[in-house]
Amino acid sequence: MQFVLNRSLFSNEMDLREQFVREIFETYLKNVISKTIPTAIRNALKESNICQRQEFVSIKEASKKYDVSTRTLYNYHKRGYITLRSTEGKTFVSVIELEDHIKNHPIPRNPW
């Protein structure tokens, strides 16, 4: 009888420990998830172009503003780095995509 009683106490003690650990783990996960997921989503939306409005400028303006030849801009488009749109005989460049590409892949310049 003594052995059975001790075993049931041991079992209850283990159940309480498991329950305690489970509750701590659940609380920790709820806190981590509730704080990190909204931050991760917010950062992803900032970095993506989904929510940003596309701005287009003429290819000549982009060439002057970013000190890049028009041939380079056409090559960027051919390789899929930027979007070009044409209307009424004019070609326009996506400013957001061009700035992003130049920021991530700077053009080497001669220092002199």
UniProtKB/TrEMBL annotation:
One example GO MF annotation: DNA binding
Top-level taxonomic group: Bacteria
The organism of origin for this protein: Chryseolinea lacunae
Official protein name in the record: MerR family DNA-binding transcriptional regulator
Ranges where the HTH merR-type domain occurs: 58-89
Keywords: DNA-binding
Record flagged with keyword DNA-binding: yes
